[in-house]
Design goal:
about 110 residues, single chain, mainly alpha
């Protein structure tokens, strides 16, 4: 508990960097209006920390998780290669399915830390 504020502050610095990259990378894609870069940045940071811990108890499971993330990256690459009409169709479908992304507040500590 005593290290929680310092740990949260360190993670927030990392999360801010990840959010900037995600915002830049997702901006030209159909996912820009559907994803929440701030929330996704926190998910990436939490996943990395969790995978590091998980790898110690289940190396095969951690490898499977990383493989799944690589496949998600391949899906993103495929979306980026779509022609403009197909990209608009993807964006339309995503908006219809889930609506616009809700922005979480950027930075700051999370409740409970």
């Amino acid at each position: 508990p005593r290290l929680a504020p310092a740990t949260a502050a360190g993670l927030d610095l990392w999360i801010a960097e990840i959010e900037q990259v995600l915002t830049r990378v997702l901006a030209p894609t159909p996912l820009a209006g559907f994803t929440d870069p701030a929330g996704l940045a926190r998910a990436v940071a939490a996943s990395f920390v969790g995978l590091e811990l998980y790898e110690g108890v289940d190396p095969a499971g951690a490898e499977a998780a990383l493989t799944a993330l690589e496949r998600l990256g391949a899906l993103m690459a495929a979306v980026e290669e779509l022609n403009p009409v197909a990209r608009r169709a993807v964006a339309y479908t995503l908006r219809r399915q889930g609506g616009p992304a809700r922005r979480a507040p950027s930075g700051g500590s999370r409740p409970g830390l």
